[in-house]
Design brief:
Layout: H1 9-15, E1 16-18, H2 29-35, E2 38-43, H3 49-59, E3 63-67, H4 77-94, E4 106-110, H5 114-124, E5 133-136, H6 145-163, E6 171-176, H7 179-182, H8 184-200, E7 209-210, H9 212-217, H10 233-246, E8 256-259, H11 276-280, H12 284-292, H13 296-307, E9 313-315, H14 321-328, H15 332-341, E10 349-351, E11 358-360, H16 365-378, E12 380-381, H17 387-395
Parallel strand pairs: 2-3, 2-9, 3-4, 4-5, 5-6, 6-7, 8-9
Antiparallel strand pairs: 1-12, 10-11
Helix pairs in contact: 2-16, 5-6, 8-10, 14-17, 15-16
Amino acid sequence: MRHFSYLSEPETARLFHLAPQELTLDSDAGLLATALGATLYCPATRPDLVKDVRKQAARGALSMVICLEDSIADADVPAAETNVVGALAELHTAGIRGSGDPEDLMLFVRVRTPEQLLSLAERSGNSLDVLTGFVIPKFENTTGAARRFLDALHTVNDTRWAADPGARPLRIMPILESPLMIHAETRTSTLTGIFEVLEANRPDILAVRIGATDMSSAYGLRRSRDLTIYDVKVVSAVIGDIVNMLGRPDGFVISGPVWEHYSSGERLLRPMLRSSPFADADELGLRQRLLTANLDGLIREIELDQANGLLGKTVIHPSHVPLVHAMSVISHEEYLDALHISGASGGGAAASPYRNKMNEMKPHQAWAASTLVRAAAFGVAAPDITYVDLLEASMN
């Protein structure tokens, strides 16, 4: 699997200085976590899950979650579980693209309880080979919920290894959205407990996800399409604390929160997309399409996610996937800066290769290392290529 694999070879050569790397489910866990990109959620009640998964994989999604939790009604859970088991069996037999290869994207199931995880695993058997792992809701260790989910995962992996010593271990992506973690009076202790259990089980953790909808709900709020999550101060404060505790250089990859809007509507505030980059690329029509669909807010939020140390994003509509991926490509300037800084552990400062900033070797080491991992996952844009060019190629 590879980001932007749907582009032709000439188009890839035009857009990229370095193309994204080919990945497998056995690739380095840190690289896989970085490469998650736009993780597209799909309700488990969809009538043809296999068709949905294959369609989005062909369109460029590299990670998907089949959701058995908040996206479906309680009364629909038994039928949804059966639907998931059947879909996994079909995908395991024929492959995600129908060619027998199960490694065309990272596929997860979002479960409600540890008991549901164990039940699904038992019913699915060898079909679990098609999964990368499970997404765990409302993850926290104060009540022991995190421990119970991890115990269930270990039971599943032990059963798989007993049947096949070469079986690939399944991992989890916990979602931080519990009220204990959100409310100020219990946040620090809850985040400390979460970090301790994640650190003790690091090989089991692929990435950490943020549940912004539940965070907003804890305060009776819902942001409009005119605002980013960082404009909602009580929620952005929680995100800041999560990154502070879990997102340090030796911590975990943390994914950006969901953008829940996908259709146009009445606009209250001014657009958040400058026109000049689109005019320079002769793509004013693209800018208008983005504004009409109110996707300028999503683009702004992706920028702020990255500025705050978050990688990738939870999305609920296929139109969001190319935006997240185009905005994740490393610019040629960033790449040269990262190479300039990386490995220069002796310190010092020097003008950047583009001669427009100062690179300080010691303070920017962690940034350079993470930038080079992102470059491997998403590629490096050619010198004359902007995000507008990548958006245009991704959305056609």
